[in-house]
UniProtKB/TrEMBL annotation:
Keywords: Membrane, Transmembrane, Transmembrane helix. The chain crosses the membrane at residues 14-34, 46-65, 71-91, 126-147, 197-216, 222-240, 252-270, 351-372, 384-402, 408-426. The keyword Transmembrane helix applies. The keyword Transmembrane applies. It comes from Dyadobacter luticola. This is O-antigen ligase family protein.
Amino acid sequence: MNWSLLNVVTNFNYLRYSLGIAMMFNGFPMIFFIRDTLGVGPANSVFTAIFFALALVLMLPLHLFKRLYMPNVILFNLGLGFLLLTLYYFFFMNAAGKSVADIGNYVFTFGFIILLMHVPNDVKDTLIMVFFLFSFFTNITLVYSLLTDPNWQPGMRAAVSFANEGAQPGGNPHITARNGVMCLLSAIMMLGTTKGLFTRLFLFFSILFGLGVVVISLAKSSYLGLGIAATAYFIFRFKFSDLASAVSNAFKFRNMIFIIIVLVAINYFLSRYGDIWGLLLNYWDVFEARIMDVVFTSTGVKLSDTADVDYSAMGRVSGFGEFMETLFSWDVFLGRGYKSDYLDVPLLEAWVSHGVFGFLFFAGFNFFLLVFSIREVRRNTNPLASFLAFFFLSMMVLLATGGRPYDIAFWFPYCVMIRFLGIRYLDSYKPSPVVRSLKPVTT
């Protein structure tokens, strides 16, 4: 973690690029805090549009359409193909209506892709640092929102309560959990390249902070997503030689001081706030009960005496029935049209709404994202690419558990992955040395 990258005088352009990308990538938690907790701006989609427009303005380059950088070509073609296909359906096969919000989503998504093509590769070190600081600060705003919310009590799901009338009660805990995952993963990626003792302590605290936010959000998809990311790490990157090296390094003087400080801090925290540990265990019990409910709803197998029907999972089960009806009808080829059915399973909805070509584009895009993510987990080329790889693995569960295939909550992160995941970076590319033979000069 290089604090000198925050120098506005020497790194202004990369900082504004990075802040704009972070606002697009993970802006919803900050939007909810400013709009609903602080009460700044209208409590509707107008404020969201202003926020994202500001992010795009920050990303405007001085060389617009004069200098472009190569994205991941495979991801770019598949992603753009799906977006253009759904845009065609939006205009010509749409029974749901052409809302302003949907038009805005397409405008922001295409605008974000275009501006990302102007961002240099060298921004990667600044970008991962801004990702971390942005998500860490957003976690702090969550704590403030919960402490000032009279309706929130310990044991409830952690989220910023919406201020607009008729909104979802209790806010959106999945947005909260995603920000916690982002803080946790970005801190882990920078921890391995950080040497300063106090900076390492700060990153270690941020990892625990992010994990705590994920736990109290009670978002099952984030729990499972982190499990998938951890499994991928142990399968593709972990080596027993690294474990032996870590154990030997732990006995070095500086590392021993670091470990002692961490253990003393944890012991002090638990002795001073022991009820928080009990609260976290209670959150785990609630999560376990919800998993049992999902298993019972999906399979009919009752693994615990208290298992009950999970109505959220029941909606996805019924959505699978809609998919099967489409599969055995003429709609299997062209689909039923834009937003024809809400299945809450993006992979299936891509087929139901947009036919076999929509499914192939969307599923193919995510398949190659998985391939490039696994390859990056194995190679570990740089912290930004590794972060994006693990972040995709953590959000991969949502493809079967929540959202729609064209949600900007998917596509804003997808755009960044198209630009920065699986490409050849300048500093990792080492051209072969040119061997020149010397010949005697003759006259």
